[in-house]
Amino acid sequence: MHFEENLLATFSLLEAVHQTLPARVVVFASTSTVYGEATVLPTTENYGPSIPVSTYGASKQGAEALMSAYAYTFGLRALILRFANIIAPRAIIGVIVDFIRKLKENPNRLEILGDGTQKKSYLYIDDCIEAIFMCC
Questions:
Q1: pTM of the full predicted structure?
Q2: pLDDT confidence tier of residue 115, bands split at 50, 70 and 90
Q3: Domain that holds residue 59
Q4: Which of 14, 40, 103, 125 fits as disulfide partner to 70, beta carbons 3.0 to 4.6 Å?
């Protein structure tokens, strides 16, 4: 599934854009999961090595590589945005959705993974969309 939705779809898009040049810019929504289990937080864009620990992260990393190769080879302007923890009112997956589900199941107990010292940043979907348009 991740192969088709990320790698194959990105390849198909890039081929179509390449055939209809000149394109202004191609924007790719990637993910912080390309970093894997990062040991430096907050994680900078040049963090390495980038070793994804999920097939989703690996497929996004592969798609980023395709974007980079097409940009270099064909003079395409590619913008890769690595999102982490986008929250939205109609979200159906993610940590916030999991917390809400757990609290509905048992309002007296909320299981939080880790030792309690971890930190996580969140970005509201409207702010994310505004940032995307500012980048383009």
A1: 0.82
A2: confident
A3: 1-84
A4: 14
